[in-house]
Amino acid sequence: MSRVLAPAKLTLSLEVTGVRSDGYHELRAEMVALNLADELTFTEGSDGLTVAAAPGSRADGLGNDQGNLIVRALAATGRVAGVHVVKRIPVGGGLGGGSTDAAAVLRWAGTDDLELALQLGADVPFSLTGGRALVEGVGERITPLPFEPRRFLLLVPPFGVDTGLVYKAWDELAQGAAGRDAGVQGPGRNALTSAALVVEPRLARWREALQELSGADPILAGSGSTWFVSHELETGTEVLPSVRIDGEEGLLLRAHTVPAGWEGD
Question: Domains in the chain, ordered, with CATH?
């Protein structure tokens, strides 16, 4: 058996720089890997996928089908193995959980092929590279950046956000009077924020909760639903007392950046 860690991806800033003729959006984003990680155990000579869902991960419904990125990544590498996943990265949270699991399969299979990674998903090339990087195009251009130790406080609402719907909403906002980015371009900002709030208005309540708790302005992770702020007081990945809004419970946790090649604290 082989064990591989799959670190979450946190997008520190994101700009939409264009839309290609095929409808794909081109981005310019700074991304870092976090010590919040799924754990994949591979057993050669076996097959099938099993999932152990950590509280708040929303991973109970993950299936062993051809749409699962782990299954697709195994097929892409031509390898066969049984895979057991301890799922800690929340599904639909904008933290790249599916992509980093696919990248973990590629690492286990011994490939660093970024073109193959891109065929699996736009975030898979960064997840395969890890560390800290400038990511451009549709995710295929990765420029590694020097590692910076940073700590964050994350609030994960009890619901996910559909990435495809967020980009569709961004297109609609860009065509209207709100302007191309709805006013949220630039370093430390996320150009998808306004579109995500259109798709899932409940996000605003959770942003306000983290702002009140931290005293800082939260940033949306990817297309949502996670909000985060810089947090320099504590170390480690630690689940904190939950946040509740209208009877719904959100996951509050600390996490820190990890370098490329990280294999655990």
Answer: 2-144 (3.30.230.10), 151-258 (3.30.70.890)
